[in-house]
Amino acid sequence: MAAVPANLLATLTEHQQTQVLRWWDQLNASDRTQLIRQLELVEFPLIRQIWQQASQQASGTADSCSRSEGSRADRAAAPRSVVRRPDSDSARAEWAAAARVGEDLLQRGRVAVVTVAGGQGSRLGFEHPKGMFPIGPVTGRTLFQIFAEQILALRRRHGAALLWMIMTSDATHEETVGFFREHDFFGLGAETVEFFRQGSLPAVDAATGRLLMCGRADLCLSPDGHGGLVNALRRSGMLRRMHDQGIEHIFYHQVDNPTVVMCSAPLLGFHLLRNSELTTVAVRKLGPSERMGVLVAVDEHTEIIEYSELTAEQAARSDASGQWVFWAGNTAIHVFTRCFLERLADSENSLPLHVARKNVAFLDEAGRMVQPADSQPPNAIKFERFIFDALPLAGTTLIVEGDRAREFNPVKNHSGADSPGTAREALSRIGREWLAAAGVAVDPAQPVEISPLTALDPEELSQKIERG
Ligand code: UTP
Predict the structure, then answer these.
(1) Ligand 1 atom nearest to CA at 225
(2) Distance (Å, whole) CA 14 – CA 2
(3) Exposure string for 387-410, b = 16+ CB within 10 A, e = fewer
(4) What is the pLDDT of residues 210-259, one digit of tens each?
């Protein structure tokens, strides 16, 4: 039987993590290989450093998070470099000009789409990857099908191969790929959809910083957050492939928003015209207490402040000109230049690790599985990276104000706000509005669903209805 590689043993000893070898003698060769592979990916010094910081903050022996965030929130101003919704003829002309530039980018094959679909969707409580959730109010189309149909419709409209990259995780990969195969890739062509897996990060015991085990040869691993995209694009070879195919801009969206306007032409156009490395769609928050991260300017950088980092008073603050500072809600719809992503990917740790205190089931010393009760304080610390931490690292950023009712209706929760109910209602409402614009009256109580293959926008629907 293979022994523990000497360098790994030395690292584990140095970082007081040899408990992960507790069952080594009982493992067969393939289990040993698996455990070694998992351990080789762990950045022990980084994990230890972040755990230590989190512990000091929790015990009040470091600058408290709220104090440092408080000062960041106090320094924050409303974001700069913003394109607001068009409200005049000249602004509408500017948007139309930007749309022509965006269309040109699409026609020349300069754009690819990435959908991040590696999350575990715990708030929704659906037992499959979230993209498989049936959301169409009439047909029960899944989120994945809606996106696939948008991609197909965009390819047809612009006569270009629009590469679709879907980031999965260990938690979602097999089922997601199986689902696409089962549906024959929704007509897109298997070779035009690329699935690539994000990395994972280990959970540690909150009190001791020791790695938790979920099996005798298994660390407790979870996906490394949507910010894992940067490393995953590099490791999977997708950055290289985009470079080789002449793709220069990447439209990024999350799997949970069925009303996202993929590759919005004005968005792409403004991104190019303003020379932006990272462009983000923001929508006006419903009010200061809405639980939504906001885009702000802090010390000349564009950043995101999470709602949980603001006191009620801070969240409502206006600046000297009377403008509400924290209006710009983050939709997680972005456009990246490929060069910027390549720069970020030069280092594994461009994006910082964040900690989340969670209850994580683990094997105790006796090898028994322990499931901590929800009523208990979290036993573990998990780590993840956030894609929006790329914002302050970009040389130039731009914020384009989106039409909230049209573009941003995410499915996050099982019920209530941002749930399947609100998203289905939004899809129906949008369908009714497009039909009304085409002169078709619809009973407001009637659910409506328009496939992206029928129309991507109200103009296309009107033309199709006119032509009969
Ligand atoms: P959320 O932050 O809403 O997380 O993800 P989630 O895992 O989907 O849901 P909860 O918090 O457990 O309820 C926002 C987007 O980022 C993706 C998700 O798939 C979703 O599209 N994501 C999140 C990843 O791709 N990987 C991750 O590790 C986390």
Answers:
(1) 28
(2) 21
(3) bbbbbbebeebbbbbbebebbbbb
(4) 999 999 999 999 999 999 999 999 999 999 999 999 999 999 999 999 99
pTM over the 0.70 mark: yes
Q: How is the chain split into domains, by residue range?
A: 72-413
The set of protein residues with a Cβ atom below 6 angstroms from ligand 1 is 116-123, 130, 167, 169, 198, 223-226, 228, 254-256, 384, 412
Tokens representing residue 345 in the block: 């990917």
Which among 254, 330, 334, 354 is the best mutation to test ligand 1's pocket, defined by most ligand atoms within 8 Å of the CB?
A: 254
The residue assigned the tokens 């220069």 is 248
What's at 253, amino acid-wise? H
Domain 72-413 bears CATH identifier 3.90.550.10: yes
Tokens standing for residue 457: 């926008």
CB hemisphere CA count around 90 (13 angstroms):
0
- Cα–ligand 1 centroid distance for 62 (angstroms): 29
CA of residue 316 to ligand 1 center, whole Å: 28
Taking only the tens place, the pLDDT of each residue in 346-398 is: 999 999 999 999 999 999 999 999 999 989 999 999 999 999 999 999 999 99
